[in-house]
Each structure stands twice: as C-alpha cells, then as structure tokens.
Amino acid sequence: MANQSQLAFQDASSPIMEELVEFHDHALMVALMICSLVLYLLTLMLMEKLSSNTVDAQEIELIWTILPAIVLILLALPSLQILYMMDEIDEPDLTLKAIGHQWYWSYEYTDFKDLSFDSYMLPTTELPLGHFRLLEVDHRVVLPMESPIRIIVTADDVLHSWTVPTLGVKTDAIPGRLNQTSFITTRPGVFYGQCSEICGANHSFMPIVVESTPLTYFENWSSLLAS
Question: What are the Cytochrome oxidase subunit II copper A binding domain coordinates in residue numbering (predicted)?
Fold first, then answer.
C-alpha cells in the first residue's frame, strides 16, 4: 500500500512487477548518466575557451552518433523482453473474469460452476476500523498465491481499466471485447487497485481489492462461497 511520503514504487508482489521495477531503475541510471554528461560538457564549454580543434573533429561526431544508438539498444532490449513476458500466458491454474460496470466490478471464477459476485466500494459510514477509505470493497477477489492466474477483462457499458499496481497489471475493459493477461502473486497479502480509465461521474469509486492467500485457504473460501 502506498503512503503519502513514498517516492518509489510499491513493493512488487509478482515477477512481472519485479522486472518492471528493475527496468525502471535501469532506465533511470541511463538517464542520470546522460544528464551528468550533458551537464559536464555545458560546464566545460562555459568555463573553458573554445578551441578550433573541435570544429572538424570527426572522432567526436562519430562518438555522439554511435553512443545514442548504443544507449537506445540498452533500453530497447530489456523493454521488449518485459513486453513479451507480459503477453505470455502459460497454462493457468485459475481463470478469473472481471466485468466492469458503472460503477462496480463483477467477477466470475470460470473454473467453478457457480462462483461469481459483484464488488462494490464500501461507503465511509460502513467502513471497518483500520480499513482504507475509498479503497475497500464488500467482496474481495481471493486468489491462491504462487499459482499462475489468467484474468479476462471486459466491460458491460463504457471503457474501464482493471489495474493493480503492485501486481504490475493494467488491462483495459472494453465492451464487446475480451482482453486477457496473467500474473503470479509471490506472497500473501491484500493488494489494492482502482479503475484507471475515466468512465463517468463515479469513476474514482470503483476500487479493486485482491487478496492473495495460501491454496488451502482459497479452497475453503471457494467451497464456502459456492455452497
């Protein structure tokens, strides 16, 4: 869960998010080196007298042509690798279908016969002590940890977006279309997200809560809810 003084990302709870955070740090270091080099050259030009030797310096021109290309390759290769990892969906242990409405989410566990529910934001007057305002829901999405999860996202009315930052998941919900993605939760916990597509007056009041639990707890929860 993010806090007001937090400067970095939330703690990653999936392998994809770990890769995204690592790539962010990698790109940030590249940007820092570029800014440092440009600042050094600007300072050098202001402090030193210009020399006529730099007018026809083909070596320098060759360097500042090849060096940006190398930097772009260093950024593009890990970026493409992460993109392919995010699109790759192996054999999932569980499939969850999320349907966006104005302004709540509906969930269907397609591997079970009758396991579906609607998830509404809890009003402030009904919020239990210690829970987060505008983020807590009446029915959480419970998923087993360390299991490949496939989520199918669609919408019933307008555009929505199913987003959980700590899992590295952001998938648009489009009426008449099924989008899918996958993730694996690496630790137990409660992870919060929100709709990330402006979908109307109450866009900011349709949160997402994912509860990652051990497999035995999930089996007990699903059997109790299905019955």
Answer: 91-224
